[in-house]
Specification:
Radius of gyration: 29 Å
Bound molecules: adenosine-5'-triphosphate, magnesium ion
Number of strands: 31
Strand content: 25-35%
Structural class: alpha+beta
Helix content: 25-40%
Oligomer: single chain
Distance between the termini: 27 Å
């Protein structure tokens, strides 16, 4: 591609809303332009990167036998009513009406459409296993679209759905996709980790996120250096401390704490460390309210509680509900004397030998409270994992925390959708049984953005070969005919060798071209001017390392091919 014919609107500055490196650099390199919040036009340079991600995704999915389809973006409400998500999905679902007043939504994900297809087309176990995927535009009316393609409202996702006869088969399909995803991200040339994940409101029980490790990531990950356990912090298991003995326990006392309801204030008033407090939190669910207990200095991890309760909906209770459950307002409540409400305590609470908590009476707290003696509760791990916590998997060692960008997510769904939408299949005995499903997503634009987060410096992007929009950036230094002719000859040779080349043949100054080349970040830069013409040597630079090589012009093709062709397989090379 000749730069003189290409649309390459590079810029020195990025707009103020661009705060992370990938967003800044995609704007500055002329890859994307904002149309509305979270909605972008993808320019030619950006599209070349997205196409490379998609190509890798398609190759690896086709390799394991997935079949590509395309589903509509506009979906009739009936399908979502059938699955029960029309109500449940909330304001992220963009709902629209057609001219007849019919309700539709823009697909944020496609379980409903694919399950409808499966219900009509999969009749017999002989058609299984089946895995269908698409690469398609999704719409989610994200509350906080930001970071460019990283969290858009309109974005391209690869979504796949597996269908199996039984749970064993479904798990096999799941692990096959886990393997395919690992190959995809290794081929993209990003440093990533699969981590155990919360299953969110899609439902199901087995789930992994593929996280690109980056400080700017929105997700926190916990990993154990001893056993290799890795999980999103929303889910990461923490080992509980040993239970305390009852031996030193004294009598329980009521303490007057007028108008003092926060742990910090009560702690100051009583001169007791917040670690000795029991914090009681009441939640409402679609079933009965529950009380959760945390140590005073800890935060509750709501997804853990939601999974434990097996509910989809969990929200802090209203003041009325708290009053009904505990007989006192928030700030003065505790587990002692609660009847008829399920109480779940974090392990650390049950390990306290003597504690302070609300007395379930206005302006009163209790001290000398002994778990097990003064109240009973179900024990559970409800904490948000912190750096240095004991690993909940091996009990040993300590967890360390890192940040990541979720580029892929896989779920084992079971029969949640197939039951709701009556997608059954005849099993080997001719009996109708609901299909076992899995679903699998990859954010195409987010993967490209995550790759930039990991591969850039103060001057611009440093594309790894597999996702680079072009592999070689050839710069003609000077406007003289002999320079342009020599560069054109090199350009032809490199293209004939199957390399992807951007040829900067624009009548611009060398300094300008070098700056642009650093910004757009092709992995190999080749520069030829008058001086090189005389010596027969071209200057080659590797963008990521900054290493320079003087290469004889007639050896350029082999020099670059040897380095680029194997690198096209990323970390699988
Ligand atoms: P997040 O927690 O980041 O909102 P999610 O759990 O909602 O992600 P999934 O429903 O699992 O995401 O979607 C599959 C993949 O689609 C994600 O792993 C991510 O790569 C991509 N994705 C999700 N939301 C967006 C978005 N708003 N913009 C760009 N990509 C997205
Ligand atoms: Mg989301």
């Amino acid at each position: 591609m000749r730069a003189s014919r290409f649309l390459l609107p590079t810029a020195k500055e990025a707009p103020a809303d661009a705060t992370v490196a990938s967003h800044v650099l995609m704007m500055r390199a002329g890859m994307i332009r904002r149309v509305a919040a979270g909605i972008y036009t993808i320019l030619p340079l950006g599209l070349r990167v997205l196409r490379k991600v998609e190509h890798i995704v398609r190759e690896e999915l086709d390799r394991v036998g997935c079949l590509e389809v395309t589903m509509p973006m506009v979906i009739p409400a009936e399908l979502w009513e059938e699955s029960g998500r029309w109500e449940f999905y909330g304001p992220e679902l963009l709902r629209v009406k057609d001219r007849k007043g019919g309700d539709f939504c823009l697909g944020p994900t496609h379980e409903e459409v694919i399950t409808t297809l499966a219900a009509s087309e999969i009749k017999s176990y002989r058609q299984l296993p089946l895995n269908l995927y698409q690469v398609q535009t999704k719409f989610r009316d994200e509350i906080r679209p930001r970071f460019g393609l990283m969290r858009g409202r309109e974005f391209v996702m690869k979504d796949a759905y597996s269908f199996d006869l039984d749970p064993d088969g479904a798990r096999e399909s799941y692990w096959q996709m886990h393997e395919a995803y690992s190959r995809i991200f290794a081929r993209c040339g990003v440093t990533f980790a699969p981590v155990e994940a919360d299953t969110g409101n899609i439902g199901g029980s087995l789930s992994h996120e593929f996280q690109v490790i980056a400080d700017t990531g929105e997700d926190a990950l916990a990993t154990c250096t001893n056993c290799g356990y890795a999980a999103n912090v929303e889910k990461a298991q923490v080992a509980g401390p040993p239970l305390a003995g009852l031996t030193s326990a004294g009598a329980r006392q009521t303490v007057s704490t007028p108008n003092v309801g926060t742990i910090a204030d009560v702690s100051a008033l009583m001169g007791v460390d917040p670690k000795q407090f029991i914090k009681a939190l009441v939640f409402e669910t679609e079933e009965e309210p529950v009380m959760a207990l945390m140590r005073g200095d800890r935060d509750l991890n709501e997804p853990k509680l939601r999974v434990l309760l097996g509910v989809d909906d969990l929200r802090p209770a209203t003041p009325e509900t708290i009053l009904r459950v505990a007989g006192a307002p928030a700030g003065f409540i505790g587990p002692v004397g609660i009847e008829g409400t399920r109480i779940i305590a974090d392990h650390e609470v049950l390990a306290l030998s003597e504690a302070v908590c609300g007395a379930n009476a206005v302006d009163e707290h209790l001290k000398g409270v002994v778990p097990g003696r003064d109240f009973t509760a179900e024990a559970a791990d409800l904490r948000i994992a912190e750096e240095g916590d004991a690993c909940g998997r091996c009990g040993d060692s300590t967890l360390s925390l890192r940040r990541g960008i979720e580029v892929g997510h896989i779920f084992y769904l079971g029969t949640k959708y197939s039951e709701a939408m009556k997608a059954t299949v005849l099993d080997t005995n001719g009996k109708a049984t609901p299909l076992e499903m899995g679903c699998y997503g990859i954010g195409i634009g987010r993967t490209a953005a995550a790759c930039i987060e990991q591969n850039h410096d103060e001057n611009g992007i440093c594309w790894p070969v597999p996702l680079a929009p072009f592999e070689v950036h050839l710069l003609a230094l000077g406007k003289q005919d002999e320079v342009l002719d020599a560069c054109t000859a090199l350009y032809d040779q490199l293209q004939d060798a199957g390399l992807d080349v951007l040829f900067d043949d624009r009548p611009e100054r060398p300094g300008f071209k070098f700056k642009d080349a650093e910004l757009v970040g092709m992995p190999w830069r080749v520069a030829l001017g008058k001086r090189g013409l005389e010596s027969g040597m071209v200057e080659v630079m590797e963008r990521a390392s900054g290493e320079r090589f003087d290469v004889a012009s007639d050896e350029l093709v082999s020099f670059l091919s040897e380095r680029i062709v194997p690198a096209r397989r990323g970390d699988l090379a």
